[in-house]
Amino acid sequence: MSGEFDLTGRCALVTGAGSATGIGFATARLLTEMGASVLITSTTSRIYDRVEELRGQGVEVRGLVGDLTDPTTASLLVAEATEHWGRLDVVVHNAGMTSLTSSESERGTIDEMSFAQWQASISRNLDTAFHVAKSCLPVMSAARWGRLVMVSSVSGPVMAMRGEPAYAAAKSAMVGLARALAIDCASHGVTVNAVAPGWIETGSQTPHEYSQGLSTPMGRSARPQEVAASIGWLVSPSASYVTGQCLVVDGGNSIAEERA
Fold it and tell me: Which residues form the domain of 79?
């Protein structure tokens, strides 16, 4: 692999990588192909199935179960990486969306949503980003090299959907957080960016979401690997002068004035 995309000898942490068809797992797979050792995490034990799928790339892959809404979890993940590999170079924060361990919906218009539902969504989609950044950035800054990418969404920073005020607010704030951190960390050789995916063809995509993907200029939803490729570039040595940016990966959907 070209040196500009070579992560050999680097160590990466990818959160939210439990789904076999999700962005997190696709990203973890790509990072192993780029040569990085990878620690992956999710809220359920299915993460160990993903570890087994990734082994065989010639690099070490480890997995841990943890709930990142708990502030101590991010610290434990960073400690696991640094104690095992002695470093942490790349962090991709993909955890968020909704919880697999909770049955309570976090959707609804603002008059339908309770404050507890609002707090749950903000905690899952924004607080987790804060916890991860707070834990990993001191390690990267001390090493004078690092890449942090936050997986946001077009919902919030670019567009909005009905009945999603908490999710949109959290994902918008995540981009603001990335930009603020980028300024604080730039002099330490650390870049902080976000990606904003649109409709994504995953195993959890609903029929409605699938039909919406057909209305994009590309005429389809994105594959998780296409979002992972954008993340792979942002964490590579070749993106060393790109920081504080939000890369939209939506097949042109947010710029189209007409729909099919």
Answer: 3-254
What's the rounded Cα separation, in Å, for the pair 23 and 59? 20
Does any domain span residue 206? yes
Cα 105 to chain centroid distance, Å, stands at: 21
Q: Residue 100 above 90 pLDDT?
A: no
* DSSP H stretches of helix in 86-243: 115-122, 128-143, 165-185, 207-214, 224-234
The whole-model pTM stands at: 0.95
Sheet strands (E) in the chain: 11-15, 37-42, 61-65, 90-93, 146-151, 190-197, 246-249
- The answer to whether position 121 is within a domain reads yes
Give a yes or no: residue 260 inside a domain: no
Task: Give catalytic residue positions.
Answer: 167
Q: What is the CATH number of the domain that holds 133?
A: 3.40.50.720
Express each pLDDT in 211-232 by its tens digit. 999 999 999 999 999 999 999 9
